[in-house]
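Record type: ASSEMBLY
Status: queued
Input:
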Amino acid sequence: MFNKLEDVLMPIADKLGKNKILVAIRDGFLISMPLIIVGSLFLLIANFPIPGWSEFWARFFGEGWESYLSTVSRATFNIISLLTVIGIGYSYAREIEADRIQGSIVAIVSFIILMPTDIAYEGVEGPATLSAISFSFTGTNGIFLAMVVGLLSVQIFHWVYKKGWTIKMPEGVPPAVTDSFAALIPSGIVMLLFFLVRIGFGLTPYESAHNFIYTVLQAPLMGVGNSLGAQIVYVVSSSIFWFFGINGPAVTNSVFSPIFRTLSIENLAAFEAGLPLPHIYTGQFVDLFQTFGGGGSTLSLVILMVAVGKSQRIKKLGKLSIVPGIFGINEPIIFGLPIVLNPVMIIPFIGVPLMNTILSAIAFETGFLPYTNGVALPWTTPLGFSGYLSTGSLRAAIFQVILVILGCVVYYPFIKVLDKNYLKDEQAKPSEDELEDISFDDLSMEDL
Amino acid sequence: MNVLMIFDQIQAGMGGKEKADIAPGGKKGEIGSVPMIKPHLAEVDGKVSACLYCGDKYFKDNQEELERKMIGMVKKLNPDVVICGPAYNYEGYAYMSAVLAHKINENTDIPGLAAMSKENQDVIAKYKDIVNIVKMPKKGGTGLNKSLSNISILAEKMFKKENIEQLKKDICY
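Status: finished
Output:
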């Protein structure tokens, strides 16, 4: 059965993993990740979920101290589309072996060419327009357009470049100069094309490319991603890929992460504005309530290994893995237990994250837990803290602990099977204990 | 066919990257990631009889001494074939695998082979002509099962001293 499954899955993983466009999107998002996390931390300090927090600090820094911190968070997630277009432009250029820095800057310029820059406002003397870039186009509403533009602009740029339609400099001219002249005509053609596209959209009822993409692509796609069904597909396929040794989330994220990311940042924006949080299935839902402790939510497994493991092998590996496990790192378990290609462990490895997903979905849907605020905590944030900080509710922290305990219940029978087998191996030669261990101290000079 | 596997700390189930300095050790029997390759070895009538391991940093820091000790231990255990790997794209482990497979071939009659992903360019460039290095995916890449099967098939042929020229072209660097 596993062989058949592998025959089906391998080509999918291969295609997704090697597809230059998907890889560029996935990696392009990663470029903005550190900035979003730091921006989130500023936002978290400004809105720390403790009653009286704001008033306490106001005594020292004066009323409205939070707005100082918000300038930093705003500078990251209100320009997420700009970061996205640069990141994707850069990583796509890398994938197709185009000039990376030229690729990323031509992408951002194309993106801004498409952007409405006459912002209407109501002045003292009546309606007027302002020539400006609006956060409403550089924030989450522009993410999907940023993806499309990042890819298209670099593709066209590279195509023209490869055609050889470039200005060539004589030898001896410094490379920086040669490169910038070589990029001149390709950049010009990309900019001209996007200028025409802008005019084209101006003639339609959508008025701008931003509006068009948001209406026909982003909103419907996010609707699909924002569902329990999508989460189940995501979490089950991630686990199955891991069983075959394939980094599951790296494959599935190439499809899902733009959606989850956008949903998170929309929650974050609402959180900052003090509005009701719109979405359940955010990136935080995935990281903190679905698969904490690494793929397969193996934190429960590690706890069991330490607590009930009888064989030396299980106990020792458990002890070594528990500290990294608390911070979400489970490489020693994945390869050392192992999980990969281990038919016994695949069942709970799929089952536990699936259970977490469904139970968390119920907890959020019924209003038992407040929605996640979108604050991008580092994925290494330990359990309990992460639940609390991402929702501002102690209940969520306790809920995470309950999930870990339930995870232990599911993992228990399976780890017992492995433990028993290993114990049998270890006890098979009771009188030859020293034989079992190979010690390098026993080597005599003759051996060397 | 009795197989000896040589692991780094991660594959041996001795911890993560932070344990790269653990001293060498071993077990008679199966440890760590053996269950992955076990069914493939079974198909060529092979069985892991013992496993040795060493932290990859420890190996690098004490290389000369470790080479001698590992060879001594291989001789003492006297398996039919030694598999150094699978090392994925773990740089230190890939290096250790190539070096040890090479030294085992040089100093014993027991055939040794290595397996690693193409990310380890430098190691591969240096050792591919003197060691059989089986191609395999990087950590989390596709094709692990196939490469484990390739490792087992090559191990069997090297043990039986069959002609491996064609096979090498297909599955090695």
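Annotation: The CA atoms of residues 90 and 132 of chain A lie 25 Å apart.
Annotation: Confidence is low (pLDDT under 50) at residues 431-435 of chain A.
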